[in-house]
Amino acid sequence: MLDPQHTILVTGGAGFIGSALVWGLNTRGYERILIADQLDRSDKWRNLVPLRFDDIIAPEALRAALDGDGLSHVRTVLHLGACSSTTETDANYLLHNNTEYTKTLAEWALRHHVRFVYASSAATYGDLEGTLGEDGDLRRLRPLNMYGYSKHLFDLYAERHGYFDRIAGLKYFNIFGPNESHKGDMRSVVNKAFHQIQKTGRVQLFKSHRADFADGQQRRDFLYVKDAVEMTLHVAASPTANGLINVGAGKSHTWIELATAVFDAMDRPRQIEFIDMPESLQSKYQYSTEASIARLRTVGYDAPITPLASAVNDYIRHYLTPDRRLGDHAATTAAVMGAH
To answer: What is the pLDDT of residues 290-309, one digit of tens each?
Structure first.
């Protein structure tokens, strides 16, 4: 169990999943939270406004604090801080920001007997398709971009040094939901589709370039961020839930199913336009991916997962349409009322 008397460090705590975790902790009565994040020129600072926490520090200040005793009150680290852009091409930056920083934090946590849970990524699976499990040989994975590789490098490092009997790495799949609007091109398709429909009345999806998949029948494992929060905090509170663990719905849906849920939540007629996939993407595109969540269930997570249509409806009606963040009172009240 997480101890409310001890401080929880959330890196990337102003970002999408990080701020959602702070919200999830707040709903459980936790307020002794230290956030580490770099507040840039985006409006991700708005994610913090409804949340309750002790302090926020820059990543550089956190790194300096690791060398002293200023973090002796921290007993849990939820490490979500990273550059999450799959199109970032500065390999040195990603190596420093994603791989090396995670090494530093993990080794500090292990030395001080602090619970350490970090964000790996489904991007580490590379071009694998079908149902993806965590049990394969990590050395055989071939990430398709430098972001995925930067995450994969730490997974390999942790395995090589025997860390996985004491730490947990979460392989997040296609997470969507409130608090992602600052992410620009890295926003979910739900978020992008909502704004496309508002502007044009239609959604654009990629055509299929494989004969065995019709247009729009490509599949992904979409998971609502509120479910991702529940899964993450369950793992954090379970000292024996270690190693790599997929965080997904365990069920894939087509892009047409996703777009349909968006239209329905907006009470708009369904209009989908299929466009050519860029040639640079065609050789790297995955046509069907789904998370195996058997390991997540094995470590005791037995809660039901929000159905896709219900999750999209909650996101659009209670957050995107009124432009609210997690923790905003009106959005929280509406979501609770809508559940009855």
So the answer is: 999 999 999 999 999 999 99
Helices 16-27 & 225-236 angle (0-180, nearest 10): 70
The pLDDT assigned to 284 comes to 80
Catalytic, 147? Answer: yes
Whole-prediction pTM value?
0.94
Helix (H) or strand (E) holding 34: strand 33-36
pLDDT in tens, 193-212: 999 999 999 999 999 999 99
Please say whether the beta carbons of 153 and 147 come within 8 A.
no
Number of domains in the chain: 1
Q: Choosing from 103, 157, 183, 207, which is the catalytic residue?
A: 183
338 backbone dihedrals φ, ψ, rounded to 5° = -70, -20
Among 265, 243, 183, 237, smallest CA distance to 21 is for 237
pLDDT at 126 over 50: yes
Q: Which position among 125, 147, 224, 315 bears the catalytic label? A: 147
Tell me the pLDDT tens digit for each residue of 83-114. 877 778 788 889 888 999 999 999 999 999 99
In a domain, 205, yes or no: no
Rounded (10°) CA dihedral 13, 259, 275, 252: 70
Active site (annotated) includes residue 183: yes
Are 253 and 174 in contact by the 8 Å Cβ rule? The answer is no
CA distance 320 to 317: 7
CATH of the domain at 296: 3.40.50.720
* Mean pLDDT of all residues belonging to the chain: 93
H or E segment to which residue 284 belongs: none
CA distance 52 to 271: 41
Between CA 161 and CA 112, with CA 243 as vertex, the angle to 5 degrees is 60
Q: Which domain holds residue 245?
A: 7-179+222-250+290-306
Residue in the structure block whose two tokens are 């500090």 = 108
